[in-house]
């Protein structure tokens, strides 16, 4: 039994390899679909640049196939910002020896952000498992999360103490705002 081996045409082999490589490179149709979805979604928000940054901060955006998937990514990414704010507030509350008032306020902000994290976990679940038709309350739930950084900054303002959390609190508030807008797009 003799077998005949044929030699592959090098040009055909090169063409197959180039096609395979092109399907996984950025800018290809396989990779462009999530980017296009992100662009289309974010263009419908009040802060397109922040929306894109928020969604691209998670690798899960690359596998998103719907606005609902992006909404879950957005709320989860905003929640991560709240976690960073809580960690910073805890660090400031423990290290504020010379600034006792600022340290106490940072500790209270840490507690607020702990509440925010619990509430945002429920919001992620609500958006993830939201039944059709769209539940308007889900966007309101996400939007309401903006009150936590507002309350934190309000405490510093009332005490007339400069807030060491101002930047991170503003970031959390803005990110939850954009996340709420994306959730609202589901309606």
From TrEMBL:
It comes from the Eukaryota. The keyword Plastid does not apply. Residues 33-182 form the Pectinesterase inhibitor domain. InterPro entries: Invertase/methylesterase_inhib (IPR035513), Pectinesterase_inhib_dom (IPR006501). Pfam families: PMEI. Keywords: Disulfide bond, Signal. Residues 1-30 form the signal peptide. PANTHER family: OS01G0111000 PROTEIN, OS02G0537100 PROTEIN. Belongs to the PMEI family. This is Pectinesterase inhibitor domain-containing protein.
């Amino acid at each position: 039994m003799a077998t005949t081996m044929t030699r592959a045409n090098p040009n055909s082999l090169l063409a197959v390899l180039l096609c395979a490589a092109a399907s996984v490179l950025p800018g290809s149709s396989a990779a462009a679909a999530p980017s296009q979805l992100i662009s289309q979604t974010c263009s419908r928000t009040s802060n397109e640049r922040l929306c894109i940054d928020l969604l691209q901060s998670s690798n899960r955006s690359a596998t998103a196939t719907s606005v609902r998937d992006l909404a879950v990514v957005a709320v989860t990414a905003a929640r991560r910002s709240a976690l960073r704010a809580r960690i910073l507030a805890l660090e400031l509350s423990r290290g504020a020896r010379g600034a006792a008032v600022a340290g106490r306020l940072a500790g209270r902000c840490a507690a607020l952000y702990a509440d925010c994290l619990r509430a945002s976990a429920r919001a992620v679940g609500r958006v993830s498992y939201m039944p059709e038709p769209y539940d308007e309350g889900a966007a309101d739930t996400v939007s309401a999360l903006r009150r936590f950084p507002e309350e934190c900054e309000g405490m510093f303002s009332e005490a007339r103490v400069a807030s060491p959390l101002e930047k991170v609190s503003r970031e959390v508030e803005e990110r939850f705002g954009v996340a709420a807008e994306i959730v609202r797009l589901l309606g």
